[in-house]
Amino acid sequence: MTEPFPAPEPTAVSAPYWDALKAGHLQFQRCKKCKHAWLPPRGECPNCLADQWSWERASGQGKLVSWVVYHIAYHPAFADKLPYNVAVVELAEGPRLITNIVNPTEQGGLRADRPVELAIQQEQGIALARFRLS
Amino acid sequence: MRGKTVIAGAGHTAFGKHPGRGTISLNVEAIRKALEDARIEKSVVDALFVKVPTSRFEAMYGQKLAEAIGIQPRVGGVWDQGGAANISMISFAAMSIDAGLCEVAVVSLADNPKTGTRQAYEKAGGDDAAYGWFGIPAGYAMIAQRHMAEFGTRSEQLGAIAMACRNHGAQNPSAQLRLPLTLDRYMDSPYVVEPLRRDDICLVSDGAAAVVVMSAKRAQELRVPAPVPILGFGQGHTSWDVAQRPVLTSTIAASSAKTAFKMAGCGPEHIDVAQIYDCFTIAALMTLEDYGFCKKGEGGPWVEGGRIAHGGELPINTSGGLLSETGMPGMQLIIEGVRQMRGTANLQVAGAEKCVVSNQGGMMHTHATLVLGQ
Prior knowledge:
Largest sheet of chain A: 5 strands, antiparallel
Number of helices of chain A: 1
Strand content of chain B: 15-25%
CATH architecture of chain B: 3-Layer(aba) Sandwich
Number of domains of chain B: 1
Order of helices and strands of chain B: EHEHEHEHHHEEEHEHEHHHHEE
Largest interface: A-B, 35 and 32 residues
Strand order of the largest sheet of chain B: 3-2-4-7-1-8-11-10-9
CATH topology of chain B: Peroxisomal Thiolase, Chain A, domain 1
Largest sheet of chain B: 9 strands, mixed
Helix content of chain A: under 10%
Radius of gyration of chain B: 19 Å
Number of domains of chain A: 1
Distance between the termini of chain A: 34 Å
Helix content of chain B: 25-40%
Order of helices and strands of chain A: HEEEEEEEE
Oligomer: heterodimer
């Protein structure tokens, strides 16, 4: 039996982010006033506080900032994935996000600042922005 | 502000398990003991600062505690900065006293995640839970991995911090975990969230601790037997969550310490003993760097070779810290600083004249620094 998955709970602000992933694109927000780019989705620019922003499609290129490997499961849905990695990736456009690296043992393995590229995967019907070592 | 206010008394409950007791009851016991230690009556207390119990948030908690100790504070409130709150509250108490808003402040914290609820410690990372992002240890592990990648910091060096705290705690009769640690045993300790092992992670504890703050003058008038001067304090909040933090390997602890040292009129070179918040070994290592005891990135080799053990150049966490004495978020470090400055510590550092204490909260989201003297 499949354990219940901790699915994202889209809000009015974040729903377009999850919808775009389902359609195969990773997008982030860019401020119309100061041009600052950010994730995760929020209603106001954390740099200049403006509420005028637009969605922009990410190139999908980024680099690995850091990562961890879980050896215990904090949620039953992850028990059969152990050990699994969670990583921080910085997109070429600047925003950072929590993600997973899908091929952590290939290409010489996980190393700080390694280039990575977007690899969207479905998990119980949810599209997640994962990355692969380039 | 240097030396204008003092810690007049300190008290704490037993550390470990307190099944069936709420945090109000634990707070009251610690406050009773702190007042006894200061040899003052409750009637002189006119301010109450309390840290929100991490294990469970409650509205109007400060008023519930004031009622339980039967006072109507002139100044008070509940602080939510995680473990940094203790020193922050002492700072706000000192400034309130200096400004004439109150005269005698009680600063207290209680927590019962061991036998009560742990809901606040195990929460998922919002929508990021879909990626398996859960729990506090992972945030520190993410930071530790980056520190290792940037500076070559090794597991054995994190182990040196765990060993110092555990071996100090093993000699503390009040410590919750009195089990000495060898490097071999540390390296055999299982990973929880790699690169952090079980022995890199603090205890889960019930308990409470409290201190009494007043002016040096008032302490003299009230014939407080062993007041410990507050020489300096500072705080700062890194705030950005781990994933969004532009730099993972240093925190605003550096400016917090700079503020505190400036007020105290001294620097890290004048510190004889340090109580460094060790919720995770990497937090203590980075704090030692950010405070200027060594250069950024050199914390790993610096903590090796017994330098931070009792008898070394800078003994840290002489009662065991969060890794051994109690996992309670931070007040116990201040109380050990008080004991060191009074000369009454179990592992007393001979001739110690100045002690720095660090407190921090979240995943290094918040920080506060206290310098104590004689």
